Amino acid sequence: MKLKRAIKIGKDCGLETIGEAICNIELHASSMFDFDNIQEEIEELHNDFKNSGLNEDNLLENN
């Protein structure tokens, strides 16, 4: 999953920070992805976040 999608989902869920959005995806991954793809999707999200230059405390409304 790309960070941009996680941010959109976080906003739709009423979350405030990027860290909350990422945690939300991790918590609900088993409901969102096929079991065989969960690890790949989470790794993609973490890599996209790492390369974004953002931090977990950045507000979703600013992204």
Automatic annotation (TrEMBL):
It comes from the Bacteria. This is Phage protein. It comes from Clostridium perfringens. The lineage of its organism: Bacteria, Bacillati, Bacillota, Clostridia, Eubacteriales.
